[in-house]
Design goal:
Length: about 140
């Protein structure tokens, strides 16, 4: 789905975004998802990866099912309480532009950067911050 170089670019975007926040960002890619809505599948993956266990409930998952050409963004309760109501929709729309051009890496990096900015605003980096979730991409 992604070359090693592309994976490094996405992981680099995650690390860059997380430098300024206590929030956590993950990416999950799978070739296909069964007959399930992308947002429902993102929620399932979020739970499976135990992303709800962050101290401030401020984790964000970018989920993509390549063969089904579907994706979703799932934010935990802490971040959802503070971001503008249209934030996830505007992030999705910004990502769609790159996905239509076939640029999965740029789509992910755009979404990650946007999420990172919101996380930085509402959950700024603290001196005692620890990386609560791995930065690597998970695959299904």
């Amino acid at each position: 789905m992604l070359t090693e170089e592309q994976q490094k670019a996405v992981i680099g975007a995650i690390r860059e975004a997380e430098k300024n926040t206590s929030g956590e960002i993950r990416v999950h890619l799978e070739s296909a998802s069964a007959d399930i809505d992308a947002l429902d599948r993102a929620r399932q993956v979020f739970v499976k990866l135990e992303m709800y266990k962050t101290a401030d409930r401020n984790a964000v998952l970018f989920y993509l099912a390549e063969d089904a050409r579907r994706f979703a963004i799932w934010g935990d309760d802490g971040i959802n309480r503070v971001v503008p109501l249209d934030f996830w929709d505007s992030t999705r729309d910004a990502m769609k532009i790159h996905l239509r051009d076939g640029d999965l890496v740029q789509a992910l990096c755009t979404g990650i950067r946007m999420a990172g900015e919101q996380l930085k605003t509402y959950f700024p980096y603290q001196s005692d911050d620890v990386n609560e979730l791995p930065d690597d991409i998970s695959f299904g």
